[in-house]
Amino acid sequence: MLNRKDDTVRKGTRKKKIATQRFVPISEIRNDTVLLKKGGLRAVLEIETLNFSLKSETEQQGIIAGYEAFINTLTFPLQIVVRSTKVNIDPYIEQIRQKAIAQENDLLREQTESYGVFVEKIVEVADIMQKRFLVVVPLDDVEEKKSPLTQFFSWIGIDDSSSKISHRRKYFSKKSSRLKDRINLVDAGLRNIGLTTRRLTTMELIELYYEIYNPKTSQEQKLPKDLNTAQLHI
Which of 11, 64, 100, 166 could lock onto 112 through a cystine, CB 3.0 to 4.6 A? Predict the structure, then answer.
């Protein structure tokens, strides 16, 4: 049975969650696409890196010229994101533990367990980081020009409604087609200079934004594997 104090705490937590969600610009994630509350769409491409230093001088000049030509062909903005995060070795450590359990020889079991502990210590002490290179391709509705102050307050005070959600879903297919054209243009431009791109899936987008908005929690609490990836409401 809940007392008044417990009930007050739960209501306070619920209100805090609603207040926090109000400032998150994302409304839904579906069909490998991020839908914003203001009506815009976002696709995120992950870029496989190349070692520029190992290229010859001629190749380097070609890459720079190709990138310059690619930028000049764009008629819309791009967001380039470089994310540095701690290496997640949990799946690897779990695999080592399972192998240790399966070992019939006691000595081999102890050595396998010791190896797992050693790897954990090395990653913890060395603070090994991994980098991801992402390109965000946007598609926004055309809006009338506003003053910077008005734009700021409209951004932090985003409220969603059932009518806005219905409007987004109604025009989602049409806007997705336009977004795909932009994605193909970016993909072709980057491939011309030797960079391979890959569009993040719905589940990968969910994990990405979960890590961005919950940097500490995401290290300890992973998303469930059976999460419904067809659509996500923030």
Answer: 100
Give the residue carrying structure tokens 């059932």. Answer: 162
At 226 the three-state DSSP class reads: coil
Nearest to 234 by CA among 45, 42, 25: 25
Q: Nearest CA to 25 among 6, 7, 42?
A: 42
Can you give the pLDDT of all 234 residues of the chain as single tens digits?
A: 445 544 544 455 455 555 566 677 888 898 999 998 888 899 999 999 888 888 999 999 999 999 999 999 999 999 999 988 777 777 788 889 999 998 888 898 899 999 988 888 887 777 677 889 999 999 987 654 555 656 555 555 556 566 666 767 777 888 899 999 999 999 999 999 989 999 999 999 999 998 888 877 776 677 776 665 544 444
Q: And the tokens for 228?
A: 């419904």
- Model-level pTM? 0.69
> How far apart, in whole angstroms, are the C-alpha atoms of residue 47 and residue 80?
10
Q: Any alpha helices (H) in the chain, and if so which ranges?
A: 4-22, 57-73, 90-102, 106-126, 148-156, 162-170, 172-191, 202-213, 217-220
Longest dimension (CA), the chain: 75
DSSP 16: H
Task: Please give the angle made by the CA atoms of 130, 133 and 138, to the nearest 5 degrees.
Answer: 145
Q: Rounded to the nearest 5°, which phi and psi values hold at 35?
A: -105, 125
- Reading the block at residue 105, the tokens are 């020889």
Q: Which among 29, 81, 31, 55 is positioned nearest to 193, based on CA atoms?
A: 55
CB neighbours of residue 15 within 10 Å: 10
